[in-house]
Automatic annotation (TrEMBL), chain A:
SMART domains registered for this protein in UniProt: AAA
PANTHER family listed in its UniProt record: DIPEPTIDE TRANSPORT ATP-BINDING PROTEIN DPPD, OLIGOPEPTIDE TRANSPORT ATP-BINDING PROTEIN APPD
UniProt keyword list: ATP-binding, Cell membrane, Membrane, Nucleotide-binding, Transport
ABC transporter domain mapped to chain residues: 4-254
PROSITE patterns, alphabetized: ABC_TRANSPORTER_1, ABC_TRANSPORTER_2
Cellular compartments annotated: Cell inner membrane
Protein name (Swiss-Prot/TrEMBL): ABC transporter ATP-binding protein
Source organism phylogeny: Bacteria, Pseudomonadati, Pseudomonadota, Alphaproteobacteria, Hyphomicrobiales
Automatic annotation (TrEMBL), chain B:
Name of the protein described by the UniProt record: ABC transporter permease
ABC transmembrane type-1 domain ranges (all copies): 95-307
GO MF annotations, alphabetized: dipeptide transmembrane transporter activity
An example Gene Ontology CC term for this record: plasma membrane
Subcellular location as annotated: Cell membrane
Amino acid sequence: MSLVEIENLHVSFRTDEGTANVINGVDLEVEPGEVVCILGESGSGKSVTLRALMQLLPKRRTTISGRIRVAEHDILSLDERKMADLRGPTVAMIFQEPMTAFDPVFTVGTQIVETIKRHEKISEREAEARALELFERVRIPSPKARLKNYPFEMSGGMRQRAMIALALSCRPSLLLADEPTTALDATVQIQILLLLRELQQELGMAIMFVTHDIGVAVEVGDRIAVMYAGRFVEMGSTREVFSRPAHPYTKGLMASTVHGDMKGQRMKAIDGSPPDLTRLLPGCAFEPRCGERIPVCRQVVPAIRTAGPGHTAACVHVGAPAKELA
Amino acid sequence: MLAYIIRRILYVIPISLGVTIIAFALVHIAPGDPLNAVVGADAPAEVVEKLKRDYGFDQPLPFQYARWLGRALTGDLGNSVVNNQPVAASLAIAVPNTLMLAITATLIGFVLGACLGGLAGYFQGTWIDKIATGFGVTGVSVPHYWLGIVLVIIFAVEFNVLPAMGMGPGGSAGWEWNWTHLRHLVLPAITLSVIPCGIITRTVRATVAEILSQEFVQALHAKGLLHGRVMLHIIKNAAPTVLAVMGLQLGYLLGGSILVETVFNWPGTGYLLNDAIFRRDIPTLQGTILVLAMFFVVLNLAVDILQTAVDPRMRRS
């Protein structure tokens, strides 16, 4: 039994410019203890997928259909109270900007303690002891004093460590990480990634890690799922996807990555810009920017096809059909 | 924190000095001769000269100011030119009356405004928001002396359930804590509370809506907190702004209730001020303006210190 099962997920927002179809049929399974990286550019629907998993999207403007199961709970049919019970002990989230994700007028320690006490019947002192232990675990120096800090009194890296401590405070089986290193310096980024990886192995939890940085995805992911315009266009083990990218979009992303020996050359970018989600065309969403497009790409959304062992891609140029899209 | 408070208290000294200069000068900038109030226009010149000397109006202004300030520091605000009573004594009677009215009105306005604004902000865009916002806009827009008169017509004249004038039965000035006296507080307090209520409604609504749009609220939900606890976070975040606005409103009400105190014949500072203006009673005017302005200074100090206590980020700056 998978820890996470997402079937044919559709999410749309009502905006002033019309309905934005942000997620357009997403299927994903995550096994316990597995790290899945969702890779994609801004607006591709990565964060929305994570938020849909926790029912954190604004209810009045959002329409969700499909099925989401997390630890055998049917997320979309849960009422508000039951969903809140799951947030923390079953599924927790790390946000991109810990400065804005902590309440500025409460100490970090208080914010961790209130979370523990919300979910477990333990005393204030026990909760405080747990918070201290968490701070030690995420290697915050002089943890006892730091618990009494307000978020603005910490550095960016330390705040993100505190955020991780908060997310782990109720020992979740699934951790959702929404670009947790994007707002950090490069050196701090690597420390945080290593810490997350280490804690993940120690605690045996699964992580869904959203990023737009291929380097980060390769560093942490067991599997990579590449997202474009609200669909997964390619999915497979990190090694497979990285060494044999099948979808033109993934290939484009890889080609546009900057590394040291490219000095003096022009950077290769993918031409064009992501589609307007309020006016999606019937065919493949990447077709207008694709160097390998053929007439059929404009007509139907390509089915998901097998590109290798445990490796699929939604492109007409890729090997054999894996399954028909609903 | 302590250093900040001390520094903040020290600021009060130059501010107060500025306040005394303005309180003193304003009255002298206004046209008209204060002696007109004491003697008729056709009084003999030597009588006018003598009176000028007696009141010190013949001295240069800076000298008059220094003498007035020196006396004010000892609590002597001079004597009224109308009835020769010490101004400080009249204020000692009027200030508590105004305080009672203003604090009651602020409390009504604050409780009502905070509830309405909180609901409007939390349920932004719904019919609850529209009703609360409509109420707030009306509160800010209605002229309160007009509302006072309307309330008097309805509750005192038509239904005869509440008294229209004064602080007690038979126009008595003495206050007692019983229903006969409290009844007199109802209409003026409600009238006076309408503007702060509207302003606080709008402030709270905007503050709550702004806080709700911040990511940390989503993060609070993401760790499973229930609505009550999330509300606590929102209140603590909104408190500094709302406190500041409420303190300012109380300040305005202390000085700005001239119209309402006049409509309801409430013997407070506004009433005193109104009377002093019409009679060109310069010492009373100066004294009252000074005391009201000092209230404002002290209130601002209190609000600043309270804000620092609630918001840790302010202790730094």
